[in-house]
Design goal:
The complex is a heterodimer of chains A (48) and B (645). Chain A has 48 residues and is mainly alpha-helical. Chain A has 2 helices and no strands. Helix content of chain A is 94%, strand content 0%. The longest helix of chain B has 33 residues, at 483-515. The chains are: A mainly alpha (48), B mainly alpha (645). Chains A and B meet through helix 1 and helix 2 of A and helix 17, helix 18, helix 20 and helix 21 of B.
Chain lengths: 48, 645
């Protein structure tokens, strides 16, 4: 029984982790944020 | 002086609420009790304004001013004091609140760190809010102009143009009106921030009712507060959060109303609890027509449940229905009456047609809610199931008042919802359990959102809150079984969304700090001359639909006719009839400029370098009509007020 509980919880944590990874790779918000940060960083470097 | 009256309009209802509940309780559960008191405070705040507004509409009383509202609030307070002095505790519960701190288990570190992350994110938003002015596209284009108009004019009536933006129910705008009266304009968005807290409390209560532990329910609330739609709305003048918060509160109180007590409560207590549920629903109904369908579905579901469980509470269903419906009408009937009075359609601006036959005339649905509006978030309906992970937005801004669910939501909630449904299907022999009924009701509301609310994400805030509450048990399971992995994932996902969300207010704040310009005109990108126009000037916004609130000026002293109310092109009849003093234009010259020039209007401002004002391609122009001979004559013959009342 304990083994089943452990397996279930492991599967669920992996599923949640996969969901998070999927979000990080596909979210337009994350991509937009990274590109905005890059733009600001370039601007900052060029201005110096 | 008006600022003091505005403050009194907020403080008197608060004292009245404290007096009303002094020595009595309606719920054993402390969270439910606080939610109930928040609802009663909202009612005591809104009702006097609505009553004065109704008297003004019937020409029984004069203008609705903050002084009169404060006086009315004082009378209510005095009445309650007299009632309390004569009659002590009326409800059977004892006055002592159960101790909440003594029985709270230790909160895991991940939840505490997550709470700190959310607090930091909200702190950045709050700092930006305090250093700026009310924001939000819909807010500055019509919610706030409506509130300013009521404040300036002392009348809540629908204008004779029947323009739909000025004909919607406006409980949120009543609070905005009061707070704008304080003179600190940024406070106008405070009801939304308080609504976020109310929504959090209600979702916590629902999660606890469904069996989640305190830490799991707290984690679910953190996920909810991290949802960008909730975060951005909390600091804007959008009204969806307020309506949603009161609706979710009604559901939370109802769930506590019928099954949270071990011993069956007295009939009177059950009816009082139902009345508070109804009042919360009524606040939502009086906020936005979106909640008509949600509240209608809730009332039907509630009556079904009360009917099935009538042996437990011993309240006849007919009596429960009367109490519930009457309570819903208390904070919303004014808006139905106002619409009936002006248009003969109680739910104006909605048009009601049955089999091609018009029952109530109004705006057809495609005008109020374009059928293809959801194409701003998805390219096809098949994209909706993956929306939490993609957050695609046609304008490019994935996080905002109407868009984005965030990393924590995508990580836990869809999975938690599926696990909750799966668990119910496996475990339960009988369907009749709170979580099963709640899950079914949530799915039903999802169907309503899909088919009747045009799949607009911000109309789904109640669904987002219910999904978080339903997933709380799943979060609790992971919290106990996989403490470290879950903790890392929770903090990481909350931090991801919080950093991206907070970037926008931080950027706005730093930009203004860099140029060190904090003026209202620069914040809204309008010519600063609008702040110096003579008090009471009638200004026609023919520039940009988002400029209406900005054009009222820093002292809210200009009367602004919004872009929604103007004819295109402008006509001498309209300008003279409304007594327009100034016309504000933006962009390339067009037919309006030609008409104004022919009418002899004088161009008093023309500049393409208004700071943050749209750039070289969008020069601002302000035409002055005062002094034109025809204008004076026309005004003398039929001078109508700027707001066409």
């Amino acid at each position: 029984m304990r083994n089943v509980e452990e397996k279930t919880s492991a599967v669920l944590v992996i599923a949640a982790l996969t969901s998070y990874a999927f979000y990080m790779f596909h979210s337009v918000a994350v991509r937009g944020f990274i590109s905005e940060l890059s733009r600001l960083a370039r601007k900052f470097v060029l201005s110096n | 002086m008006q600022a003091i009256y505005a403050l009194l309009c907020l403080v008197f209802p608060l004292i009245s609420t404290l007096i009303l509940f002094r020595g009595s309780r309606l719920w054993d559960d402390p969270v439910a009790e606080r939610l109930g008191r928040a609802v009663v405070y909202a009612i005591l705040h809104l009702l006097p304004i609505q009553l004065l507004g109704a008297l003004e509409l019937m020409h029984v009383a004069g203008a609705v001013t903050l002084f009169r509202v404060a006086l009315f609030d004082l009378l209510i307070l005095a009445g309650l004091l007299a009632y309390r002095v004569r009659r002590l505790p009326g409800v059977e519960r004892d006055a002592q609140a159960p101790s909440t701190t003594a029985r709270l288990p230790a909160v895991p570190a991940s939840v505490r760190i997550g709470a700190a992350v959310i607090a930091a994110c909200y702190g950045v938003f709050l700092l930006n809010m305090l250093a700026s002015y009310p924001t939000g596209t819909d807010a500055i284009s019509y919610h706030l102009p409506v509130a300013v108009r009521w404040l300036q004019d002392g009348s809540l009536r629908i204008p004779s143009s029947r323009e739909w933006h000025f004909s919607l129910p406006g409980n949120a705008e009543l609070s905005m009106m009061t707070l704008l009266g304080t003179g600190w304009q940024t406070l106008a968005t405070l009801p939304q921030l308080l609504s976020a807290l109310l929504l959090a409390g209600a979702s916590y209560s629902v999660a606890r009712t469904l069996g989640a532990g305190t830490s799991a329910a707290a984690a679910a609330v953190l996920v909810l507060l991290s949802v960008p739609i909730v975060t951005f709305q909390a600091f804007s003048g959008y009204i969806d959060l307020l309506g949603s918060a009161f609706f979710v509160t009604a559901v939370a109180l109802f769930l506590r109303c019928h099954d949270a007590v071990d011993a069956a409560p007295r009939r009177r207590t059950v009816l009082l609890r139902l009345a508070v549920c109804g009042l919360a629903c009524g606040v939502a109904v009086g906020t936005k027509p979106t909640y008509y369908v949600y509240v209608g579905a809730f009332v039907l579901a509630a009556l079904c449940i009360l009917s099935i469980e009538r042996d437990r509470h011993r309240v006849p269903v007919q009596m429960a229905a009367i109490v519930l419906v009457a309570a819903i009408l208390v904070p919303s009937a004014f808006w139905f009456g106002r619409a009936q009075f002006a248009t003969s359609n109680p739910i104006y601006p909605l048009k009601v047609e049955i089999a091609g036959h018009t029952i109530f005339d109004g705006y057809p649905r495609p005008v109020l809610a374009p059928p293809d509006a959801d194409r701003s978030w998805v390219r096809s309906n098949w994209d909706w199931p993956i929306y939490p992970w993609t957050e695609w937005k046609d304008s490019g801004f994935s996080y905002g008042t109407g868009t984005g669910l965030g990393a924590s939501f995508a990580t836990f909630i869809p999975l938690g919802f599926v696990v909750a449904l799966w668990g119910m299907a496996r475990r339960q022999r009988s369907f009749w359990r709170p979580e099963a009924v709640f899950a079914a009701a949530s799915l039903g509301m999802g169907v309503i959102w899909w088919f009747t609310l045009n799949r607009n994400p911000r109309f789904a805030i109640p669904l987002i809150a219910f999904s978080c509450a339903l997933s709380a048990s799943f979060l609790g399971y992971l919290m106990t079984q996989r403490r470290v992995s879950f903790g890392v994932l929770l903090v990481l996902s909350l931090a991801t969304t919080s950093v991206i969300s907070a970037f926008q207010p931080a950027h706005s704040l730093l930009t203004r700090a860099r140029i060190w310009t904090w003026s209202r005109a620069v914040y809204y990108g309008v010519p600063s001359i609008v702040d110096d126009l003579p008090s009471g000037s009638c200004v026609l916004n023919a520039a940009n639909f988002m400029a209406s609130f900005a054009l009222t000026g820093k002292h809210l002293s200009n009367r602004v006719i919004t872009i929604f109310e103007r004819p295109s092109p402008l006509t001498a009849e309209f300008l003279d009839g409304r007594g327009v003093d100034y016309v504000v234009k933006m962009g390339a010259r067009d037919e309006d400029d030609r008409v104004l020039s022919e009418l002899g209007a004088k161009l008093i401002f023309e500049d393409a370098s208004v700071l943050l004002g749209g750039g070289e391609a969008n020069p601002w122009r302000i035409w002055k009509l005062e002094g034109r001979s025809g204008h004076r004559n026309a005004s003398a013959i039929s001078r109508r007020r700027c707001f066409e009342l």
